[in-house]
Design goal:
This protein is an alpha+beta fold. It contains seven helices and 26 strands. The protein has helices at about 1-30, 35-50, 55-80, 160-215, 215-270, 315-325, 505-520; strands spanning about 95-100, 105, 105-120, 125, 130-135, 145, 150-155, 270-275, 280-285, 290, 295-305, 305-315, 345-350, 370-375, 390-395, 400, 410-415, 420-430, 435-440, 450-455, 470-475, 475-480, 485-490, 500, 525-530, 540. Strand 22 and strand 23 (about 485-490) form a beta hairpin.
């Protein structure tokens, strides 16, 4: 047992020493291979002295690791020592060809696509104005039928109102007769009063004569006659005043009778319901034989002479509309009143997507079936749910004729609930002064439409000025120019002489070429222009 323990202890120490030597060789990596081999030989000799079996695979593993580390360290040292001697190759650079176009001033129509829904211009709810039984309903009174202005629709039993009318006529005639009678009485009393006044004049003269020469009894009799004549005049004047007061009351009664007659005549007329406008019957609520009271709804009529479209404009649409609308020139001495809560009066082109299938044009999206005008905001502000602003578009002529030269050609009206495509149109005229817009190729814009690339200068080597590449931020206001061109707001960063790059190009290569031009003497072309075949016009109508 003691011998066994003694032998095991040297073996354990030897193994621990071997592992320690291995870790030292891996960490340092700088000792020479000869020292490594001597250490390995010493370990092998110690192992053999203590009786440990000889293992060749461990020796090969140690030797292989040392060789790999040595080679790696040598390569790294060689590269680091010779790094400064390797010449840097200058990147090869030539002017790249690009397709270019020039920006053109834009004069024409700015358009912005929106959509909307047709609603009635006005909807009239017709109710009964008198009570009674519906005795007649005309066949034209059916939902969806077209009626003309003044066309009869419903009749309410008129018998009661005919009786009331005749009664009112009798009361009116009676009031007239009473007034005429009073006028005759007044005229008679006025004649009596005139005669009585003459009689009083005679009696007074007689009284004066008798009072001068007559006896006492004659004087008394003359005084009595004068008093009787004066009392008769007083009675006549009182009767005349009463008759005139009665006449006033009878004239008032006559006026009341006239009002009753007019009411009876009006009630009689109201027994017949006629169409107040030309339109389409939306709904009917009564049938023949029904009893209706005054105020009961009878039918709903929609005005088809005009139409309205409700569209919801986003905040971006409103900004586009207000910032691009041309303010009318102010007249001398006229104060301009600005409606901060309104919207500019704007023309709108209206298109029915289904009718586009009937168009024979190459680009049917350019046609419009109706013309309207954006007139006002429909309400007081934004819709809380959609964050849009509902607006009204008025259409004066809601009928579209497929072929105006052929009377028999079909006609298509704007009807409620129809979905239509809209284009707000803002004309840009050259007469307002310097144009505020450019027309540029749509392919020149970035994917987000926020910027484009343009080159300043000639594409000739040794030109007067060096070419410069510009990244220009733009604001796109219209992309509906057939898809090939877009309208942007004029910016001072973009000149008409600039060459706008159409299509892709290598920006890194351009920068290398620009740096090379800065290092060499003279001006070096960065790009070679290939002028794009352009249909861009300075005046364009979308």
């Amino acid at each position: 047992m003691p011998n066994t323990t003694a032998e095991s202890l040297p073996k354990t120490d030897t193994s621990q020493n071997s592992n320690a030597h291995d870790e030292d060789r891996l960490i340092s990596g700088s000792q020479s291979s000869e020292v490594e081999r001597e250490v390995a030989s010493a370990e092998l000799s110690r192992d053999s002295q203590h009786g440990k079996p000889f293992k060749m695979n461990e020796v090969f593993k140690y030797i292989f690791s040392v060789v790999i580390l040595s080679v790696g360290i040598g390569v790294i040292a060689y590269v680091m020592a010779n790094k400064s001697a390797v010449p840097e190759a200058k990147p090869e650079s030539v002017a790249q060809k690009i397709k270019v176009e020039n920006a053109k001033p834009f004069y024409g129509d700015l358009t912005r696509a929106i959509s909307g829904t047709v609603v009635p211009y006005r909807e009239i709810k017709i109710a009964a104005q008198v009570s009674g039984v519906v005795t007649k309903k005309w066949p034209v009174l059916e939902a969806g039928t077209k009626v003309t202005d003044g066309e009869p629709l419903i009749e309410i039993d008129p018998q009661l109102y005919e009786i009331q009318l005749e009664t009112a006529k009798g009361e009116m005639q009676q009031a007239k007769d009473q007034v005429t009678e009073i006028d005759n009485e007044i005229k008679g009393i006025e004649n009596l009063r005139e005669n009585t006044m003459k009689e009083i004049s005679l009696v007074t003269d007689e009284y004066k004569r008798i009072f001068a020469v007559g006896t006492k009894s004659e004087k008394t009799q003359a005084e009595r006659s004068r008093l009787v004549a004066e009392n008769s005049l007083t009675n006549l004047e009182n009767n005349l005043a009463n008759l005139r007061a009665r006449k006033v009351r009878m004239v008032t009664s006559q006026k009341v009778a006239e009002q009753k007659l007019k009411r009876a005549e009006l009630d009689k007329v109201r027994t017949e319901i006629i169409a107040p406008i030309a339109g389409v019957v939306v709904r009917e609520m009564v049938q023949q034989g029904d009893y209706v009271r005054a105020g009961d709804p009878l039918l709903i009529l929609e005005d088809t002479e005009k139409a309205e479209i409700i569209t919801n404009l986003t905040p971006t649409d409103l900004v586009w509309l207000k910032t691009n609308s041309q303010n009318p020139p102010a007249e001398t001495g006229v104060e301009i009143v600005t409606d901060n809560f309104g919207i500019p009066q704007t023309n709108v082109r209206i298109t029915d997507p289904d009718l586009l299938q009937l168009s024979k044009l190459d680009n049917p999206t350019d046609i419009s079936h109706w013309q309207g005008q954006l007139v006002s905001i429909n309400g007081s502000g934004q819709d809380e749910a959609t964050r849009t602003t509902p607006c009204r578009i008025l259409v004066e002529d809601p009928i579209y004729e497929l072929n105006s030269e052929d009377p028999s050609a079909p006609k298509f009206p704007l009807v409620r609930g129809m979905y239509v495509k809209l284009k707000m149109v803002i004309p840009v005229s050259a007469s307002v002064g310097e144009g505020g817009y450019f027309s540029v190729p749509a392919k020149a814009l970035s994917d987000t439409g926020e910027f484009l690339w343009a080159v300043e200068g000639s594409d000739l080597d040794n030109a007067t000025t060096q070419q410069k590449l510009h990244k220009i931020k733009v604001e796109v206001v219209d992309r509906s120019g057939g898809g090939d061109y877009a309208v942007i707001k004029r910016t001072n960063d973009l000149k008409e002489s600039f060459h706008i790059i159409v299509g892709p190009f290598d920006e890194v290569r351009a920068n290398v070429r620009a740096n090379l031009a800065n290092e060499e003497e003279g001006n070096l072309a960065i790009f070679k222009y290939e002028q794009q075949a352009s249909s861009n016009q300075s005046s364009t109508t979308n």
